Amino acid sequence: MVLKESFPRDLSPLEKDLLLWLLPADRPGYREYRSIVAAWSVAAKGRRGEGNFILASETTEIDNESPLPQVFAYGLVELAHGAIAITIRERLGDQLEYEIVSLEGESLPDVLEEKRRWTFSTWLPKQACPNCLGILREVVMQTERGRRFALALCKNDGRIWVYDEVSGVNHPVPLTNFYNELMLHTKVRDPNIALNSKRLFTDLQNYSDSTLSRAFASYNKLKTKIEFEDQLQITDERKPSLLRRLHSRILKSD
After folding, report:
1. How far from 84 is each of 15, 17, 76, 90, 156, CA to CA, in Å?
2. CA atoms of 66 and 126, how far apart (whole Å)
3. Of the candidates 148, 51, 29, the residue with the CA atom closest to the CA atom of residue 97
């Protein structure tokens, strides 16, 4: 007989440890979420099945009808056998949704036999990918007032995220939505390219920093990851002048 879970309940020690690990205390943008984890109770199950729950204040009426909030933080704990994925979604009013699930579909162990754990939350520009430890493509972006960001793309993992220098938050960016904006910006209509988002990483060398920045700016208007106080400063890329092209040909012919 399976006992029905009752709510509200406190976070388990394992849940609290994993959620706070995804929210570094030394980064301003994660502090609000850390306060929520410390103060609110588990009020209900989410709509995504096992391991999906909602934190809320005592008087909150749970909303399971609104569109699912975007991912705010993500990490993985690799075990001796299997792995556990931890996801925190963006705050929706007075509730916060999270998922802690075994990638093998098993129940969570009482004691974790960890091999390693990694998260996007602690990444900084010029560092390796937190998962594969490989070299990333980084696109530095800046607003007109000097606020800096870094768009990170990992070819090995097929993941994208954007780092905000002010808040210290690394926002995961969904591949498909970003790629759609890139295709619109570059005016690619060939369905073999435009509908195959994985080509972003195989063709990554074909896209300039400016093009990727413009695609992110367009995406951010539709699915806001960062609230910009002013416009991103994107340098227009111009074709080399006729004089420069002739000079280049002369050098090659020497």
Report:
1. 11, 13, 6, 20, 20
2. 37
3. 51
- As a residue count, the chain comes to 254
- The answer to whether 214 touches 234, Cβ cutoff 8 Å, is yes
**Phi/psi of residue 4, each to 5°?**
-75, 130
CA 75, CA 130: separation in Å to the nearest integer? 9
Q: Give, in order, the Cα–Cα distances in Å from 124 to each of 1, 18, 26.
A: 48, 20, 13
What does R_g of the chain's alpha carbons equal in angstroms?
22
Q: Count CB atoms within 10 A of the CB of residue 202.
A: 10
Contact 180, 195 (CB under 8 A): no
Question: Contact, 146 vs 164, CB < 8 A?
Answer: no
- E-strand ranges in the chain read 41-45, 52-56, 71-79, 83-89, 95-102, 114-119, 137-142, 148-154, 159-164, 170-173
pLDDT confidence of residue 98:
98
Q: Which of 163, 119, 160 is nearest to 140 (CA)?
A: 163
Q: What is the pTM of this model?
A: 0.87
* 129-186 pLDDT per residue, tens: 999 999 999 999 999 888 999 999 999 999 999 999 999 999 999 999 999 999 999 9
Q: Which pLDDT tens digit goes with each residue over 58-84?
A: 889 999 999 999 999 999 999 988 899
